[in-house]
Structures are given as structure tokens and as C-alpha cells.
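Weekend entry, working from home. Most of the wet-lab plans are on hold until the incubator is repaired, so I used the time to fold the two sequences that have been sitting in the queue since the last round of cloning. Logging both here for the record. First:
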Amino acid sequence: MRQLIVDLNAVAHNLGAIRERVHGAKVMAVVKADAYGHGMIPVAKRLEQEGVDYFGVADLGEAVELRQAGISTPILAWLHAADEDFRRATEFNVEVGINSEAQLNTALTTAAVQGKPLRLHLKVDTGLNRNGASVDEWPGLVSAAKSAAETGHVVIAGVFSHLSSTSTTDDAQQIVRFEMATSLARVMGLEFEMRHLTASDGTFNYPHAAYEMVRIGIALYGLSPFSDNRAADYDLIPAMTVKSEVVHVKRVPDNTPVGYGYEHRTVGESSLALVPIGYAEGLPRNASPRAKVKINGRTYRISSRIAMDQFVVDVGDDDVKIGDEVLIFGNPAAGAPSADELANAARSINYEIVTRMGGRLERSYLGEAGGS
């Protein structure tokens, strides 16, 4: 009675749409956080079948999970524990992001002890002021990385950064800083294979900054990284559909209060339909009473507060019965409400909506690798 369906054919299609935009640059599929709620292993297996160039994850735990599932495509992990020793990276052939000389030294020591070269990507902070070496720290990290590479224990595979997506002006400044940082690294004699800066939004907005690789997260799952809901403009197909069913219907008189806080009262005699999905499944509580769902092809506003397990829809005099399908969100081209609409109702973003969906939702996949 609670379903989450992921269309892996849509994910594969979205990869193709991205490839057409980047003109030969490699594509890193970002599958962190369980592939933004879509299921890391099924997504990765299908994308590996499609020949994706890289996978990106936040930490080594996610990377190891991919390797243990049989994924052989290169993987980059970029967020590490304070006491990370990188043994898992060498054991499972995972490339790691490096943000400081101290982290570099730890990686070098581990690689030397393990006797396996470790591939590193150096991160420079170009203005997001989150992870990465600052502009002042960058020359020291480059110098140390050059010396480390000369030992043969590490290979500098790439240099990367991340845009803030604040404005085109701010992003342009970051692009300039990134190019200055990579140029300085080369002037200092550091050899590296690739540069990567843009995620989904930057890849769409700044094709000149694709360099040798782009990192694609939300667009891979068919959602626009922009707030104005333009996914279809980029030939993206939303991959996730969440639906439920009506489990109870009752006829009530005029002015009947509904749900916690009595935030809705019926206008005239009306029917109330109960839907068994709530914030335990990731449906945002603060999306009520603005969120809308579809029942029998008609759009209805959620009438009650979204509770842990359920919500109520006032369907008026419409013929709604127990067992009727309720579309929470999915592909607007197929007539479903969109994740963007739910995000707007919750005053959030589509990234959060899809990533948080889970709980008691029964998952199924269309187009699994090796399947139909």
C-alpha cells in the first residue's frame, strides 16, 4: 500500500542526455546517500552497464559497499573521518579526495605501508568555503603532492573544486580561481590527469567549464538543479515515483474538522479519503496543507496535517473508493505531481524530497541491469 518505484531506464536515459551536453568529457555519476534515495547498488549496476566513467560517493563506506556489490568502475570518495587511515581505499581500489597536507601525509603513509599506489584528487576551495584547501594553503599542498607522487606510492589523478551556485557572477569568479589553481599546479610541476569542477547546475550553465570530467548528481535522477523546475528542458526524465492507495473513505457533514489541529473543515457534506503514508516514509510534515496528490487523475490538496503514518484528502462528492491509487509524486509527463511541487510545498528542494523517501515504502525497480 506504499510504493517507491525507480525507473532505471530513465536514469540511463539521463546519463545519455548529459553525455550529449559535455562533448566528450567524462561523466562521474554521483551515487552518494543511496543514490539520492534511488538505491545506490541498483543504480550503479545499471550505470556500469551503460559504461559510465566514474562513480562519486561521499565516504569510503559507500565506496566499499559498491565494490562489495561487484562494481569495478573507478570510484572517488571525498569526505573522510578525522582519523581515516585510507586502508580501505587501497584494499578496495578507491580513489580519494584530499583537502590538506595532513590528509595527504596520512594517505601517503598508508599507501607506502600497504604497498599499493593510491590515486588522489586534490581539492581546492575556490569560494564555497566548505571542503578543500584554501587559496593560501594550495601552494603548500601542491608542493607536498608533487613530492608524494615522486615516491611512487601515490598518483595525482585529478584536481577538483565545487561551485556555490549563488549567482553567475560568483560562479564565474570561482571558475577563474579554479583555473588559476590548476595552472599554478602545472607551473609547479605537478602532473595530474583531469580537472573536474561542475556538478549538475554548473554543467548546464557553464559548458566551457566541463574540462575533463563533470560530476552529475540530481540531473542523473531526472530532476533539475534549478528552482524553476526546468528538468524537461534538459531532456531529463524523473526516475522516482511514490504512490499509495486509499484505505478508508467516510462521508461527513458540513464543517467537519479534519486531522491534528483542525486545520481543515469541510464545506458542505463531503467524503474524506485516508492515505497510509506519512513522515515516517519521508513525506515532509511541513508540506501540509499545501501539498497536492492525484487520485483517479484528479488533483487534490492534502487536507489534514501529514502525520507519521497517514494523511486525509477531502475529495468532496467525487467517486473515490478504497483501493484507488494515490500518486504522491513522479514524472509530470506521465500525469503525476512532481517532486519539485512537493518541495515547494515543503519550502525545500527536490534533492531533499527524493533523498529522504524510505521508511515502509516498498521499493521496486524497472530496467535493472541484467533484467527487464
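Second, folded right after the first finished:
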Amino acid sequence: MSVSATEGEALAEGIELRFTLPRTGFDLEVDLRLPARGITVLHGPSGSGKTSVLRCVAGLERPHNGYVRIGDQIWQDDRRGHFLPTWRRALGYVFQEASLFEHLDVRANLHFGLRRDSDSRARQSLAEAIELLGIGHLLGRAPHALSGGERQRIAIARALAARPRVLLLDEPLSAIDHSRRQEILPWLERMRDELEMPMIHVTHSADEVARLATYLVVLEAGRVKASGAVAGVLSSLDLPVVVGEDAAALLEGELLERDVAWHLARVGFAGGSLWVADGGLPLGRRVRLRVLARDVSITTQEPGYTSIQNHVRGVVESMAGDVHPSQVLVRLRCGDSVLLARVTRRAMASLELGPGRPVWAQVKSVALVQ
């Protein structure tokens, strides 16, 4: 299921999408180049065109002026009159609801799709998917005895067994309650880190963006508002993804130290370090930190005698208006990383904040999302 590749090969094997699709109220227009591995998240409000993009990749919709390339395979090229039907596209598609055969147990559901492709490679792919998703103990169960999260893991394993060139995930967690969603997210993270194939994941959940995305595409009314590495897109000040209470920065770091006495762990990132609640992860583990803008305050002097324990030196890079006219979002450059802070315009004026101003960021709360 996994094939090693150099970074150059990964770029060459990426995904290229160019097409237009008329929708009610707008035309979906896409011109994207996506990475060859990891999870590309399509994010945006309901009705922005996210699922339509997946359907065009799958061949379930035929867009105008279309060009769809997955690695070295061209699935659509309207300039040459080429269109590969869905059944000939090597893809896996996971929907919001896991459509399992209720009269078959899990093992039979997983093997059903192998009847036409029963060679050893297909069976090996299925065995790897079962191990990757941790579902070996579920093989004898009936679908009605599975939780929502377990059903979706079965559906994903079934899609992976077909050895797809790309895995399409259309809001697979939207029909699952919060606790079951937290149960399946670690398995999706494992897929992102271990599978050397591209995945395109549709969601409007900021939490899923923070936890899963390696590459982020922001859609609004059929237009690509932004695309790029997830940390850079999230920390931009002029995108719809960062407005409101979900405005946050994403930091990639490593667990460096554990303070057993106070049940804390220190995470180092490119620009400083932050103490977080110790969740028992091993030292050296790569993790992600999500820092909400509302949890960051700014001071022009090094903090002292404060209950806020996380202080990071930075420089004001830019500022932009927030949802309410009394507030602004401040983008802080902290070494090679970025934090966002939400402050009032009054505070901005009294601190004389502006681009280039050295400051200290006080981080009141940090979420370890991986």
C-alpha cells in the first residue's frame, strides 16, 4: 500500500485539477495543484462547492473545460476529448454515511469488493488497511453492533482495499457524535502520516482542519479563496477561515520535556516553546498545537508575576479588523512561526502596536490536537 518517494517525485506525482461546473447561484471554478501525499482539506461553509469538487474528481460530475490528473494518470482532458468514467478511475470514496451490507458481517463486507479482484496484492492491501485502522477485532461483528466511528473505519478500509490512487472523504465524520468523532480522528491522523497516497477530505469543521490537514483549500461560493500549507493559510488575516471564535494559529512542534510534579509537558516549536497539559505522549513525539487568537494577549514588556506561564517573544507583522469593530486581529512573527492575537482597538492604540513593534505574546491556553 505504501511506496517510498523522494520529495521531487512526490511533486511530480501530485494532483492537478482545473475545471468549471455550473451550480445553482454560482459557477464552481477550480485551478489547483495538490500534494501527492497527506490530507488536503477542502474547507468552507455549506454550499461552497466542496463536495462538487470531489464528485468532479470521481467522474460523478462532468465539469466544463476539465482537466483532472492524479499522478501520471490523466482522468479528464477536455482539450483532447478524454474522459475516464468513474468505474475506470482508481479511487476510493467514503461518504457521510457508511453504506454497509447489514446482512453481512464486517469480514464479508470487506471482502465483498474483492470478488472481482482477488489477487494477492488486493488481499494484502486489505490486510494492511485492517491493521492500519485497528479493526481486526471487529471482523466477526454485524454492522448493527458497530458504533458510528467503527462503521466509518470499516468503510475506509474497504475503500483502501481497492488500492486507490486517491482517497476521497466527503465529510465522513459529520454524521457521528462528538465522542465518536474523537475516537476516529486518531486513525485518520495515522493514515495521513503512514499512507503515501493523497487524500482529499471535505469538512466545515475547524477542529478537523487543525488536526488533519497538511494542505488547506478554502472555498467560498465556488471560488478558491486560498490554498497552501495549513499553518500558513490559517494564520493569514484576510481569509474567511480565520474569522470569529475559530481564529487560531497552528504550530508544529516536538515534546521536549516533562514536568512530572506539575503534570505538564513542554513543546518546542520554531520560535519558542509552550507548556501544555501532559497527556502521556512520549518525549520526541511530533505534535500539533492549536492556539486560539482569543487566548493570546500582548505586552510590550517581558511578563512577570502573572498566572499566565507561556510567554513567547515576537514582532507585530500585520493587523486586520475583526468581526466586531472594537477588536483587531494581530499577526505576530515568533521566529519561524506565527501566532494570532485578538485585542481591542483601544489596547492597540495604548500599546502603540504596529508592524515591526517587538512584543511578548502571553498564551493563556493551548490545545494539543495531535
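Plan for Monday: verify the second prediction. Residues 1-11 have pLDDT under 50 and may be disordered.
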